[in-house]
Design brief:
The protein is α/β, with parallel strands linked by helices. The chain contains 13 helices and 8 strands. Helix 2 packs parallel to helix 4, helix 5 runs parallel beside helix 6 and helix 6 runs parallel beside helix 8.
Length: 289
């Protein structure tokens, strides 16, 4: 059986762009898989916000790995995880690679921000020296036990030093062994095209609708430009927030959710998580008569 990393590599190499919505827990990951997507992206920003804090590097390696493990166990499709800055220097990053790989992740992306990092669409980001980042990518590649485990180099240099430096970092990371390049937050459609034209490697792009720094480009157009992976890191969580707010408003104003139409039924929810499977296990292994 192919490793998770190999399965992810095959999806990246396929002619069709790989679309990965962002999950932050087991349930959101299951819903992504059941919707027919071929993989799941674990959003670090989504995990942070699900705990009630902003995406400013407050989540620890252990906390992130615990969520990633939960998600990997919940779905059968390959999981690509956000590993932030690697939670420290190159040696810290090597441990992060081993921890992520051990829980079943197919690959991770690592960014060049100064620790603690910031959300890629926040102001005030800082990046480390290019040479330091390249060394971290080399260390990450050396740390993986499975050579198919996917290492993605993400640079946030566009916001700090301009697009040309971001492209230069992407090229340097390719030479250091990165499997995929992720230029975070290009600010125009021309910049998105420039990245695709300039970097001869598999490319990932993050589409943040409604308020992100990158203009929205359709999935079909990004595929034509030459992008290989598109992540919708925050859309699922923002949709969940929208739905929860509407129901809570109904409960607050009408003192009942009885007539709120936009929810799933109790049995449908149980079907999503396959409760019957666990009931069958109980019947088989817990009944003594």
């Amino acid at each position: 059986m192919a490793s998770n990393g190999k399965r992810l590599r095959e999806l990246i190499a396929a002619p069709e762009i790989l679309v990965l919505p962002g999950a932050w827990d087991g349930l959101s990951a299951i819903l992504i898989e059941q919707a027919g997507f071929q993989g799941v992206y674990v959003t670090g920003g989504g995990i942070a916000r699900s705990t009630g804090i902003p995406d400013i590097g407050l989540i620890t390696l252990n906390e992130q790995v615990a969520r990633v493990k939960m998600i990997c166990e919940a779905v059968a499709v390959p999981v690509l995880a956000d590993a932030d800055t690697g939670y420290g220097n190159a040696i810290n990053l090597m441990r992060a690679v081993r921890e992520m790989e051990a829980v079943g992740t197919a690959g991770i992306h690592i960014e060049d921000q100064v620790t603690p990092k910031r959300c890629g669409h926040y102001e005030g980001k800082e990046v480390v020296d290019r040479r330091e980042f390249v060394k971290k990518i080399e260390a990450a590649c050396a740390a993986r036990r499975d050579t198919d485990f996917v290492i993605i180099a993400r640079t946030d240099a566009r916001a700090v030093m301009g697009l040309e430096e971001a492209i230069a970092r992407g090229k340097a990371c390719c030479e250091a062994g990165a499997d995929v390049i992720f230029i975070e937050a290009p600010q125009t459609i021309d910049e998105i095209k420039r990245v695709a034209d300039a970097i001869d490697a598999p490319l990932l792009i993050n589409m943040v609708t409604q308020g992100g720094k990158t203009p929205y480009v359709s999935t079909d157009e990004l595929e034509r430009m030459g992008y290989d992976i598109i992540i919708f890191a925050s859309d699922v969580q923002r949709a969940a927030i929208f739905g929860m707010r509407r129901l809570l408003q109904e409960l607050r104003e009408k003192r009942t959710g009885e007539f709120f139409p936009d929810t799933v039924g109790f049995q449908e929810r149980e079907g999503i998580i396959d409760s019957d499977y666990y009931f069958q296990l109980q019947e088989r292994y817990l009944r003594l008569d």
